[in-house]
Every structure is written in structure tokens, then in C-alpha cells.
Amino acid sequence: MDKSSDNQQQQREETRFGYGKIEHFQKIETLGEGAYGVVYKGLNEKTKQVIALKKIKLETQSEGVPSTTIREISVLREIDHPNVVQLKDVIMCPSKMYLVFEYLEMDLKKKIDTLGAGNSFPPAIVKSYLYQLISGVAACHSRRIIHRDLKPQNILLGTNNELKIADFGLARAFGIPIRPYTKEVVTLWYRAPELLLGTTEYSTPVDMWSVGCIYAEIISKRPLFDGDSEQDQIKKIFRILGTPNEDVWPGVQNLDGFNKVHWTQHKPQDLRNIIKYIENIDDNGVDLLEKLLIFDPTQRISAIQALQHPYFSDVQK
Description:
By secondary structure, this protein is of the alpha+beta class. The protein folds into two domains: 20-102, Phosphorylase Kinase, domain 1 (2-Layer Sandwich), CATH 3.30.200.20; 106-312, Transferase(Phosphotransferase), domain 1 (Orthogonal Bundle). Helix content is 32%, strand content 16%. The chain is built from ten helices and ten strands. Helix 4 runs antiparallel to helix 6 and helix 6 (205-220) crosses helix 9 (283-292).
């Protein structure tokens, strides 16, 4: 490694984890607020970089730092990828802590909302967003990390349409064999059917289902499955994709959430007749969507397989 590379590496390390002080950061405006604390747009007065500053209050946490924050820090320390948001620093104060992130202009949900009636994303942008999203998911899965809360609000976009996955508060490392996890993860509209039907043994396919739902929403500008309860959510999935049986999803009848209900038998519908603006997507793009929304998690396309799909044959890799 030459001297310039050494300097670049040192400079990169000095922007991450413990080199900064809160006095170095100026708050510009509030971006959002939730149970965890407040997110600000800010300025690093030393580097003059615009950053996002997440403030987490500690005085309300009887056990110290919230578990979601610990997870987010530990996961983002493991991942250095252009399609995963960069955690630049962690700053501890007496009653609060700050996470310093790179700043991006808006999230995917806001971007969709800005399109306005009658407009949709150009096919090239749809493909670019999806490729970047799957690339980021593949980076997580290759490190044995499941995001578990992929949704448009957790996907950030920059001024040049660069896309980065954010909010790893529900992320989880997994191992082999898979052990039981909570099923109370993933925002309802993007939650995989195996979770809705009660399984606690799941893995990376739950993220790929979410990717499929997000892909459909990028195309159509509206959620594909917008249930108002777990029961309503699974019913809406069955109405569009058909009611599964042992032929299409071996073992489905053994899931508690499936065998306790007498389900109306629906036949699968052609997604081309369901999703608005899907005519802008070529046959390969529709095929990839169908593979992301396969019921059987063992047959659902993986992130690595998806990146190799013919839909992305013209993407520069």
C-alpha cells in the first residue's frame, strides 16, 4: 500500500467511532423524532461535512444504552459498503449519546411522494434503485446479518440517486443452525408470509420478501399489500398471489397461523394486471419480482442470485 493509500485509510478511520466531540457538531435542523430520540441535520465544523446526528436519550433507559442502538452500532461497524449508510462516529455524553451518520437528502418514501399524480420513476431509475438495494442487502447477508425492517422509510437517497440502507435497530446476526427469533419484526406491509403465519425460525428470505414489496412500490408508487392487521395482511397477500398449499409451500399446513384458519381459496393473479405502471418494466423485471414474492422461503430468490438475474444484465457491475 502506498503512502497516499495509507493516509486515506488513516483519514477514514479517524472519521469513525470515538474521535469526535459533540462540540464539533452544529445542529442545523430537526429531521425526525421518535421513541429512540431525535435526528438532526448537522455540520461537522472540523471537516465542514454535512452529517445526520441521531441523539439517543439515556436517562429514560434504566438498563443504559437501548438494545436497538447497541445492535445498530455493532452491525454498522461490521459493514462497509456503498449501499449501506455509514456510521461515522459514536459520541457519549453523561445522559445521552449521539450517532453520527453520513447525510442523505431524503428517504425512498418521501421520494415516491414527490413524484405526484400521473408520474412514475423511469425504468432505468427503478432498475438502479433495486440493484443498489439488493447489493446492500447482499452485503448484510454475506456477513450473516438480517436487517428485519426493510421498508421505503429506511432506505435513503442522495442527490445523484445513490441508495443506502439505514436503520439497523432490528437487525440480527444469524448462524447455522437457525435458532428461534421473535416474529414481531418487519413493518406489517413488508412482512414475509412465514412471519405472519407464526414461524420463529427464519433467515435471510424475510429480507428478500421485503425487497419484493419495495420493488413493487417503486414501480407503482403504492404498497402492494397494505393490510391493517396481521390477519388482513395475509388475506391481501393470498388474494393476489393465491392461497398456498403443500404443493407450492411444503410445510405451510404445519404453521400455527395457517392451520387454525379456514382460508378462502384464491388463485394467483398475474402481477401485470395488479401493479400500476408495471408495463414500463420488461419481462425479466417482472420475472424477478415474482421470484422475490415466492411463498416458500427456501425457494425465494437470494440476494446473490438476484444480482445475477437477467434483469440486471445491462447494469455496470
